[in-house]
Amino acid sequence: MTDKKPSNADRRRIAQERIAAQRKADAQRQRNVMIAWIAGGVVLLGGAGTAAFFGIQSLNKQSTQAKIDKQASDPSIDKSATLLATTAKQATGEVIDGIVKSNSMEALDYHIHSHLQIFVNGAQKNIPYGIGIVAPYQLQTSSDGSAFVSGGSAFYYLHTHDETGVIHVESPTKQEYTLGNFFDVWKQPLSSTQVGPNKGTLTVYVDGKLYTGDPSKIVLTEYKKIQLDVGTNTPYKDFTWPSGY
Amino acid sequence: MDAEERELAALEHEADALEARATRHGRAPRSRRLLMVQAPVLAALAVLLLVWGRSGPQPATAATPSPPLLGLTAAHLDPPAGSGGPVYAYVTIRNNGGTPDRLVGASSPWARTITLVDGSSPTPQPWITVPAHGSVTLTAQGEKIALGSLTRLPRPGDTVQLDLNFASSGTVFTFAPVGPASSLTVQDVMDAMKHMDMLPPQ
Protein backbone atom coordinates (compact mmCIF):
# COMPACT_ATOMS: atom_id res chain seq x y z
CA MET A 1 0.00 0.00 0.00
CA THR A 2 1.47 3.27 -0.99
CA ASP A 3 0.49 6.79 0.07
CA LYS A 4 -1.22 8.57 -2.64
CA LYS A 5 0.54 11.91 -3.24
CA PRO A 6 -2.02 14.78 -3.06
CA SER A 7 -2.65 16.55 -6.21
CA ASN A 8 -1.61 20.16 -6.63
CA ALA A 9 -5.25 21.15 -6.50
CA ASP A 10 -5.64 19.40 -3.13
CA ARG A 11 -2.44 20.99 -1.81
CA ARG A 12 -3.72 24.44 -2.87
CA ARG A 13 -7.12 23.86 -1.27
CA ILE A 14 -5.65 22.53 1.97
CA ALA A 15 -3.14 25.40 2.25
CA GLN A 16 -5.84 28.00 1.51
CA GLU A 17 -8.14 26.43 4.12
CA ARG A 18 -5.35 26.48 6.71
CA ILE A 19 -4.61 30.16 5.95
CA ALA A 20 -8.30 31.06 6.04
CA ALA A 21 -8.73 29.24 9.35
CA GLN A 22 -5.79 31.07 10.91
CA ARG A 23 -6.95 34.44 9.62
CA LYS A 24 -10.41 33.81 11.00
CA ALA A 25 -8.88 32.86 14.34
CA ASP A 26 -6.77 36.03 14.23
CA ALA A 27 -9.84 38.17 13.58
CA GLN A 28 -11.63 36.47 16.46
CA ARG A 29 -8.67 37.18 18.76
CA GLN A 30 -8.68 40.84 17.72
CA ARG A 31 -12.40 41.07 18.49
CA ASN A 32 -11.85 39.46 21.88
CA VAL A 33 -9.02 41.87 22.68
CA MET A 34 -11.24 44.79 21.74
CA ILE A 35 -14.08 43.44 23.91
CA ALA A 36 -11.65 42.91 26.79
CA TRP A 37 -10.43 46.51 26.58
CA ILE A 38 -13.96 47.87 26.35
CA ALA A 39 -15.10 45.73 29.30
CA GLY A 40 -12.09 46.88 31.32
CA GLY A 41 -12.79 50.50 30.46
CA VAL A 42 -16.46 50.16 31.42
CA VAL A 43 -15.54 48.58 34.76
CA LEU A 44 -12.99 51.31 35.42
CA LEU A 45 -15.29 54.14 34.41
CA GLY A 46 -18.15 52.60 36.37
CA GLY A 47 -15.97 52.39 39.48
CA ALA A 48 -14.69 55.91 39.05
CA GLY A 49 -18.19 57.24 38.35
CA THR A 50 -19.63 55.50 41.40
CA ALA A 51 -16.76 56.76 43.53
CA ALA A 52 -17.26 60.29 42.20
CA PHE A 53 -21.01 60.07 42.83
CA PHE A 54 -20.60 58.96 46.42
CA GLY A 55 -17.71 61.39 46.89
CA ILE A 56 -19.76 64.37 45.69
CA GLN A 57 -22.77 63.16 47.65
CA SER A 58 -20.60 62.89 50.73
CA LEU A 59 -19.14 66.38 50.24
CA ASN A 60 -22.62 67.83 49.65
CA LYS A 61 -23.87 66.16 52.79
CA GLN A 62 -20.93 67.56 54.76
CA SER A 63 -21.48 71.05 53.31
CA THR A 64 -25.22 70.96 54.00
CA GLN A 65 -24.61 69.55 57.44
CA ALA A 66 -22.04 72.27 58.19
CA LYS A 67 -24.59 74.94 57.21
CA ILE A 68 -27.30 73.29 59.28
CA ASP A 69 -24.91 72.95 62.24
CA LYS A 70 -23.82 76.59 61.96
CA GLN A 71 -27.39 77.77 61.62
CA ALA A 72 -28.54 75.63 64.52
CA SER A 73 -25.70 76.66 66.77
CA ASP A 74 -25.49 80.36 65.88
CA PRO A 75 -26.77 82.09 68.99
CA SER A 76 -28.19 85.09 67.18
CA ILE A 77 -29.44 84.04 63.73
CA ASP A 78 -33.19 84.18 63.07
CA LYS A 79 -34.52 80.63 63.13
CA SER A 80 -38.25 81.34 63.06
CA ALA A 81 -40.23 78.57 61.37
CA THR A 82 -42.18 81.04 59.25
CA LEU A 83 -39.20 82.51 57.40
CA LEU A 84 -38.90 82.45 53.63
CA ALA A 85 -35.20 81.63 54.18
CA THR A 86 -32.68 82.25 56.93
CA THR A 87 -29.65 84.52 56.69
CA ALA A 88 -27.23 81.57 56.99
CA LYS A 89 -25.93 82.04 53.45
CA GLN A 90 -26.06 85.83 53.21
CA ALA A 91 -23.19 88.15 52.26
CA THR A 92 -20.57 88.73 54.91
CA GLY A 93 -19.03 92.04 53.95
CA GLU A 94 -18.10 91.83 50.28
CA VAL A 95 -19.46 94.45 47.85
CA ILE A 96 -22.70 93.27 46.25
CA ASP A 97 -23.63 94.07 42.64
CA GLY A 98 -20.88 96.68 42.61
CA ILE A 99 -22.92 99.19 44.62
CA VAL A 100 -24.15 97.68 47.88
CA LYS A 101 -21.35 98.03 50.38
CA SER A 102 -21.17 97.53 54.10
CA ASN A 103 -19.76 99.89 56.65
CA SER A 104 -19.64 100.51 60.32
CA MET A 105 -19.17 104.19 60.80
CA GLU A 106 -19.84 106.25 57.68
CA ALA A 107 -22.34 109.05 57.95
CA LEU A 108 -25.69 108.00 56.51
CA ASP A 109 -26.96 110.80 54.31
CA TYR A 110 -29.55 108.70 52.46
CA HIS A 111 -32.04 106.91 54.67
CA ILE A 112 -35.35 105.58 53.37
CA HIS A 113 -37.52 102.55 53.97
CA SER A 114 -39.43 100.16 51.73
CA HIS A 115 -41.62 97.26 52.75
CA LEU A 116 -41.63 93.69 51.46
CA GLN A 117 -44.11 90.92 52.17
CA ILE A 118 -44.13 87.48 50.60
CA PHE A 119 -46.84 84.85 50.31
CA VAL A 120 -46.21 81.29 49.13
CA ASN A 121 -49.46 79.62 48.08
CA GLY A 122 -51.35 81.94 50.39
CA ALA A 123 -49.14 81.44 53.46
CA GLN A 124 -47.14 84.45 54.59
CA LYS A 125 -43.38 83.89 54.78
CA ASN A 126 -41.51 86.30 57.02
CA ILE A 127 -38.37 88.18 56.14
CA PRO A 128 -35.70 87.37 58.77
CA TYR A 129 -34.12 89.97 60.98
CA GLY A 130 -30.47 90.68 60.26
CA ILE A 131 -30.45 90.53 56.45
CA GLY A 132 -27.51 92.75 55.51
CA ILE A 133 -26.13 92.88 59.04
CA VAL A 134 -22.95 90.88 59.46
CA ALA A 135 -22.78 88.66 62.56
CA PRO A 136 -22.07 88.56 65.46
CA TYR A 137 -25.40 90.21 66.18
CA GLN A 138 -26.52 92.16 69.17
CA LEU A 139 -30.10 91.08 69.77
CA GLN A 140 -32.61 92.93 71.87
CA THR A 141 -36.11 91.91 72.82
CA SER A 142 -38.63 94.67 72.47
CA SER A 143 -41.41 95.28 74.96
CA ASP A 144 -43.82 93.20 72.82
CA GLY A 145 -41.47 90.21 73.07
CA SER A 146 -40.20 90.26 69.49
CA ALA A 147 -36.48 90.11 68.80
CA PHE A 148 -34.60 92.57 66.63
CA VAL A 149 -30.99 93.16 65.67
CA SER A 150 -29.58 96.28 67.25
CA GLY A 151 -25.92 95.74 66.45
CA GLY A 152 -23.45 93.77 64.43
CA SER A 153 -19.96 93.82 63.00
CA ALA A 154 -20.95 95.56 59.74
CA PHE A 155 -24.10 96.98 58.16
CA TYR A 156 -24.93 96.78 54.46
CA TYR A 157 -26.64 99.79 52.95
CA LEU A 158 -29.66 97.48 52.59
CA HIS A 159 -30.65 95.62 55.75
CA THR A 160 -33.42 94.50 58.06
CA HIS A 161 -33.55 94.89 61.82
CA ASP A 162 -36.66 92.81 62.48
CA GLU A 163 -39.22 90.50 60.88
CA THR A 164 -41.68 93.22 59.94
CA GLY A 165 -40.52 93.27 56.32
CA VAL A 166 -39.18 96.81 56.54
CA ILE A 167 -36.09 97.18 54.36
CA HIS A 168 -33.77 99.90 55.61
CA VAL A 169 -31.89 101.73 52.88
CA GLU A 170 -29.08 103.63 54.55
CA SER A 171 -26.13 104.78 52.49
CA PRO A 172 -23.60 107.62 52.54
CA THR A 173 -24.92 109.00 49.24
CA LYS A 174 -28.22 108.93 47.40
CA GLN A 175 -28.22 105.85 45.22
CA GLU A 176 -30.85 103.79 43.43
CA TYR A 177 -31.12 100.30 44.90
CA THR A 178 -33.40 97.53 43.71
CA LEU A 179 -35.20 94.57 45.21
CA GLY A 180 -32.70 92.43 43.27
CA ASN A 181 -29.82 94.09 45.15
CA PHE A 182 -31.56 93.25 48.43
CA PHE A 183 -32.00 89.57 47.48
CA ASP A 184 -28.37 89.48 46.33
CA VAL A 185 -27.24 90.63 49.80
CA TRP A 186 -29.50 87.92 51.24
CA LYS A 187 -28.07 85.48 48.65
CA GLN A 188 -31.50 84.25 47.71
CA PRO A 189 -32.80 83.87 44.16
CA LEU A 190 -35.42 86.29 42.82
CA SER A 191 -37.00 85.95 39.40
CA SER A 192 -40.41 85.79 37.77
CA THR A 193 -40.51 82.06 38.59
CA GLN A 194 -38.69 81.83 41.93
CA VAL A 195 -38.47 83.68 45.22
CA GLY A 196 -35.94 82.26 47.66
CA PRO A 197 -36.33 78.50 47.70
CA ASN A 198 -39.92 78.66 46.40
CA LYS A 199 -40.67 78.15 42.71
CA GLY A 200 -43.92 78.96 40.97
CA THR A 201 -45.83 81.58 39.09
CA LEU A 202 -45.11 84.98 40.57
CA THR A 203 -47.65 87.74 41.04
CA VAL A 204 -46.24 91.08 42.12
CA TYR A 205 -47.98 94.05 43.65
CA VAL A 206 -46.27 97.41 44.09
CA ASP A 207 -48.18 99.86 46.26
CA GLY A 208 -51.29 97.79 45.67
CA LYS A 209 -51.05 97.74 41.88
CA LEU A 210 -50.23 94.72 39.74
CA TYR A 211 -46.64 94.85 38.48
CA THR A 212 -45.70 92.73 35.47
CA GLY A 213 -42.01 93.57 35.03
CA ASP A 214 -38.90 91.88 36.32
CA PRO A 215 -39.25 91.75 40.14
CA SER A 216 -35.51 92.17 40.63
CA LYS A 217 -35.70 95.58 38.89
CA ILE A 218 -38.17 97.10 41.36
CA VAL A 219 -36.49 100.21 42.73
CA LEU A 220 -36.61 100.63 46.50
CA THR A 221 -38.08 104.05 47.14
CA GLU A 222 -39.41 105.78 50.25
CA TYR A 223 -42.41 103.90 51.68
CA LYS A 224 -42.76 101.64 48.64
CA LYS A 225 -44.79 98.55 49.49
CA ILE A 226 -43.98 95.37 47.59
CA GLN A 227 -45.92 92.12 47.76
CA LEU A 228 -44.67 88.93 46.09
CA ASP A 229 -47.09 86.01 45.68
CA VAL A 230 -45.55 82.69 44.69
CA GLY A 231 -48.12 80.21 43.38
CA THR A 232 -51.57 81.20 44.56
CA ASN A 233 -52.42 84.84 43.93
CA THR A 234 -53.04 86.36 47.36
CA PRO A 235 -54.96 89.63 47.24
CA TYR A 236 -52.81 92.64 48.13
CA LYS A 237 -52.55 93.32 51.87
CA ASP A 238 -51.73 96.84 52.89
CA PHE A 239 -49.01 97.62 55.41
CA THR A 240 -49.23 100.42 57.92
CA TRP A 241 -45.96 102.15 58.66
CA PRO A 242 -45.12 102.39 62.37
CA SER A 243 -44.48 105.85 63.76
CA GLY A 244 -40.90 106.98 63.55
CA TYR A 245 -40.29 105.80 59.98
CA MET B 1 10.57 23.58 -9.84
CA ASP B 2 7.88 25.08 -11.93
CA ALA B 3 5.86 28.15 -11.12
CA GLU B 4 2.86 26.27 -9.76
CA GLU B 5 5.10 24.30 -7.39
CA ARG B 6 6.66 27.54 -6.10
CA GLU B 7 3.22 29.09 -5.58
CA LEU B 8 2.02 26.00 -3.68
CA ALA B 9 5.17 25.99 -1.56
CA ALA B 10 4.63 29.67 -0.73
CA LEU B 11 1.01 29.01 0.27
CA GLU B 12 2.01 26.09 2.48
CA HIS B 13 4.81 28.18 4.03
CA GLU B 14 2.36 30.97 4.85
CA ALA B 15 -0.02 28.46 6.41
CA ASP B 16 2.81 26.98 8.48
CA ALA B 17 3.94 30.42 9.64
CA LEU B 18 0.43 31.43 10.72
CA GLU B 19 -0.05 28.20 12.64
CA ALA B 20 3.38 28.54 14.27
CA ARG B 21 2.54 32.10 15.40
CA ALA B 22 -0.74 30.92 16.90
CA THR B 23 1.12 28.15 18.72
CA ARG B 24 3.72 30.62 20.05
CA HIS B 25 0.95 32.67 21.63
CA GLY B 26 0.16 29.74 23.84
CA ARG B 27 -2.86 27.76 24.50
CA ALA B 28 -4.82 30.63 26.07
CA PRO B 29 -5.79 33.20 23.50
CA ARG B 30 -4.28 36.68 24.00
CA SER B 31 -7.62 38.19 24.82
CA ARG B 32 -8.22 35.67 27.55
CA ARG B 33 -4.74 36.24 28.97
CA LEU B 34 -5.38 39.98 28.88
CA LEU B 35 -8.66 39.53 30.69
CA MET B 36 -7.03 37.25 33.25
CA VAL B 37 -4.50 39.99 34.10
CA GLN B 38 -6.79 42.94 33.61
CA ALA B 39 -9.87 41.75 35.47
CA PRO B 40 -8.43 41.45 39.00
CA VAL B 41 -6.56 44.75 38.64
CA LEU B 42 -9.66 46.57 37.45
CA ALA B 43 -11.85 44.93 40.05
CA ALA B 44 -9.42 45.91 42.81
CA LEU B 45 -9.25 49.45 41.44
CA ALA B 46 -13.02 49.70 41.28
CA VAL B 47 -13.39 48.44 44.86
CA LEU B 48 -10.71 50.90 45.99
CA LEU B 49 -12.49 53.80 44.32
CA LEU B 50 -15.81 52.70 45.79
CA VAL B 51 -14.40 52.51 49.30
CA TRP B 52 -12.74 55.91 48.89
CA GLY B 53 -15.93 57.38 47.50
CA ARG B 54 -18.07 56.03 50.32
CA SER B 55 -15.73 57.15 53.06
CA GLY B 56 -14.49 60.30 51.33
CA PRO B 57 -11.91 62.70 52.66
CA GLN B 58 -12.61 63.61 56.24
CA PRO B 59 -13.75 67.22 56.61
CA ALA B 60 -11.23 69.53 58.20
CA THR B 61 -13.84 70.67 60.68
CA ALA B 62 -14.07 67.19 62.13
CA ALA B 63 -10.55 67.52 63.47
CA THR B 64 -10.44 71.23 64.24
CA PRO B 65 -12.92 72.90 66.59
CA SER B 66 -15.39 75.32 65.04
CA PRO B 67 -14.58 79.04 65.30
CA PRO B 68 -16.31 81.25 67.87
CA LEU B 69 -19.98 81.98 67.17
CA LEU B 70 -20.98 84.93 69.30
CA GLY B 71 -24.33 86.46 70.03
CA LEU B 72 -24.89 89.42 72.34
CA THR B 73 -28.13 90.00 74.18
CA ALA B 74 -29.71 92.26 76.79
CA ALA B 75 -27.20 95.09 76.45
CA HIS B 76 -28.09 98.07 78.64
CA LEU B 77 -26.64 100.71 80.96
CA ASP B 78 -27.60 101.75 84.44
CA PRO B 79 -28.63 105.38 84.78
CA PRO B 80 -25.66 107.32 86.22
CA ALA B 81 -25.50 107.45 90.01
CA GLY B 82 -23.79 110.84 89.99
CA SER B 83 -23.04 113.66 87.64
CA GLY B 84 -19.47 112.57 86.88
CA GLY B 85 -19.91 108.86 86.32
CA PRO B 86 -18.84 106.21 85.92
CA VAL B 87 -21.71 104.56 84.11
CA TYR B 88 -21.96 100.79 84.09
CA ALA B 89 -22.89 98.69 81.06
CA TYR B 90 -24.10 95.09 80.99
CA VAL B 91 -24.45 92.49 78.31
CA THR B 92 -24.70 88.74 77.95
CA ILE B 93 -22.29 87.20 75.46
CA ARG B 94 -23.07 83.70 74.24
CA ASN B 95 -20.46 81.66 72.35
CA ASN B 96 -21.85 78.61 70.56
CA GLY B 97 -18.60 77.95 68.70
CA GLY B 98 -16.01 75.34 69.58
CA THR B 99 -13.27 77.90 70.27
CA PRO B 100 -13.16 80.50 73.04
CA ASP B 101 -13.10 84.18 72.17
CA ARG B 102 -11.84 87.04 74.27
CA LEU B 103 -13.28 90.48 74.85
CA VAL B 104 -10.14 92.60 74.66
CA GLY B 105 -11.47 96.14 74.88
CA ALA B 106 -14.30 98.56 74.24
CA SER B 107 -14.82 102.11 73.05
CA SER B 108 -17.65 104.62 72.85
CA PRO B 109 -18.14 108.21 71.79
CA TRP B 110 -19.68 108.73 75.24
CA ALA B 111 -16.53 107.93 77.27
CA ARG B 112 -12.78 108.39 77.10
CA THR B 113 -11.93 105.41 79.27
CA ILE B 114 -13.68 102.06 79.33
CA THR B 115 -12.58 99.29 81.66
CA LEU B 116 -13.87 96.06 83.09
CA VAL B 117 -14.46 96.22 86.82
CA ASP B 118 -15.63 93.73 89.39
CA GLY B 119 -18.39 94.48 91.91
CA SER B 120 -17.99 97.79 93.64
CA SER B 121 -14.23 98.01 93.16
CA PRO B 122 -13.12 100.63 90.64
CA THR B 123 -9.88 98.73 89.96
CA PRO B 124 -9.72 97.67 86.31
CA GLN B 125 -9.78 93.92 85.80
CA PRO B 126 -8.37 91.89 82.90
CA TRP B 127 -10.80 91.63 80.02
CA ILE B 128 -12.79 88.42 79.86
CA THR B 129 -12.77 85.19 77.90
CA VAL B 130 -16.02 83.83 76.53
CA PRO B 131 -15.60 80.04 76.71
CA ALA B 132 -16.47 77.70 73.85
CA HIS B 133 -20.09 76.57 74.11
CA GLY B 134 -20.52 78.90 77.06
CA SER B 135 -21.58 82.39 77.98
CA VAL B 136 -20.62 85.36 80.11
CA THR B 137 -23.14 87.67 81.73
CA LEU B 138 -22.04 91.01 83.12
CA THR B 139 -24.00 91.97 86.24
CA ALA B 140 -24.11 94.74 88.81
CA GLN B 141 -22.71 92.43 91.50
CA GLY B 142 -20.10 90.82 89.27
CA GLU B 143 -18.04 91.93 86.32
CA LYS B 144 -19.33 94.87 84.34
CA ILE B 145 -18.11 97.50 81.91
CA ALA B 146 -17.36 100.91 83.42
CA LEU B 147 -17.54 104.01 81.21
CA GLY B 148 -15.41 106.76 82.74
CA SER B 149 -14.26 110.26 81.79
CA LEU B 150 -17.63 110.78 80.16
CA THR B 151 -17.89 113.12 77.21
CA ARG B 152 -21.58 113.48 77.99
CA LEU B 153 -23.63 112.16 80.86
CA PRO B 154 -26.08 109.59 79.53
CA ARG B 155 -29.65 110.09 80.64
CA PRO B 156 -32.43 107.51 80.91
CA GLY B 157 -33.78 106.93 77.42
CA ASP B 158 -30.52 107.71 75.65
CA THR B 159 -29.06 105.14 73.29
CA VAL B 160 -25.35 104.63 73.82
CA GLN B 161 -23.06 103.24 71.13
CA LEU B 162 -20.65 100.75 72.65
CA ASP B 163 -18.11 99.03 70.39
CA LEU B 164 -16.93 95.73 71.85
CA ASN B 165 -13.65 94.39 70.49
CA PHE B 166 -13.15 90.62 70.39
CA ALA B 167 -9.86 88.89 69.66
CA SER B 168 -11.34 86.52 67.06
CA SER B 169 -14.73 87.91 66.11
CA GLY B 170 -13.60 91.51 65.66
CA THR B 171 -15.58 94.57 66.65
CA VAL B 172 -19.29 94.33 67.35
CA PHE B 173 -21.03 97.72 67.17
CA THR B 174 -23.76 97.66 69.80
CA PHE B 175 -26.41 100.15 70.82
CA ALA B 176 -27.57 99.95 74.40
CA PRO B 177 -30.35 101.84 76.14
CA VAL B 178 -29.86 103.68 79.41
CA GLY B 179 -32.45 101.79 81.43
CA PRO B 180 -33.98 98.33 80.97
CA ALA B 181 -32.73 96.33 77.98
CA SER B 182 -36.28 95.94 76.73
CA SER B 183 -36.70 99.72 76.47
CA LEU B 184 -34.65 99.88 73.25
CA THR B 185 -36.61 100.10 69.99
CA VAL B 186 -35.66 99.76 66.33
CA GLN B 187 -36.34 103.48 65.97
CA ASP B 188 -33.81 104.21 68.73
CA VAL B 189 -31.18 102.17 66.85
CA MET B 190 -32.05 103.88 63.56
CA ASP B 191 -31.60 107.27 65.18
CA ALA B 192 -28.33 106.27 66.85
CA MET B 193 -26.94 104.88 63.58
CA LYS B 194 -27.36 108.27 61.98
CA HIS B 195 -24.56 109.44 64.25
CA MET B 196 -22.15 106.52 64.20
CA ASP B 197 -19.08 107.15 66.36
CA MET B 198 -20.38 110.56 67.30
CA LEU B 199 -22.47 111.89 70.10
CA PRO B 200 -26.05 112.41 68.92
CA PRO B 201 -27.38 115.98 68.93
CA GLN B 202 -28.99 116.99 72.21
Mean pLDDT of chain B: 86
Biggest chain pair interface: A-B, 71 and 69 residues
Q: What is the CA-atom radius of gyration of chain B, in angstroms?
A: 41 Å
Strand portion of chain B, in percent? Answer: 25-35%
- Summing up helix and strand content along with how strands pair, one would put the structural category of chain A as alpha+beta
Question: How many H/I helical runs of chain B?
Answer: 4
What form of chain A results from the Cα inertia axes? elongated
Mean pLDDT of chain A: 88
- Summarize the helix and strand pattern of chain A as letters: HEEEEEEEEEHEEEEEE
- Silhouette of chain B: rod-shaped
Structure report:
The complex is a heterodimer of chains A (245) and B (202). Chain A is 30% helix and 24% strand. Chain A contains 2 helices and 15 strands. In chain A, the strands form 4 sheets. In chain A, strands 2, 3, 8, 9, 13, 14 and 15 form a 7-stranded mixed sheet that branches. In chain A, strands 1-7-4 form a 3-stranded antiparallel sheet, with no helix packed on it. Chain A is elongated and about 125 Å long. The mean pLDDT of chain A is 88. Chain B is of the alpha+beta class and 202 residues long. Chains A and B meet through α1, β5 and β6 of A and α1, α2, β1, β2 and β10 of B. β5 of chain A pairs parallel with β1 of chain B, so a sheet runs across the interface.
Please write out the topology:
The complex is a heterodimer of chains A (245) and B (202).
Chain A lengths: L7 H66 L28 E2 L6 E11 L2 E3 L7 E2 L2 E5 L5 E5 L2 E3 L1 E2 L6 E6 L7 H8 L3 E2 L2 E2 L2 E2 L2 E5 L2 E3 L13 E6 L15
Chain B lengths: L2 H22 L5 H26 L4 H4 L6 E8 L9 E9 L5 E7 L3 E8 L2 E5 L3 E2 L3 E4 L5 E8 L8 E8 L3 E8 L8 H8 L9
Antiparallel strand pairs in B: 1-2, 2-7, 2-8, 3-6, 3-9, 4-5, 4-8, 9-10
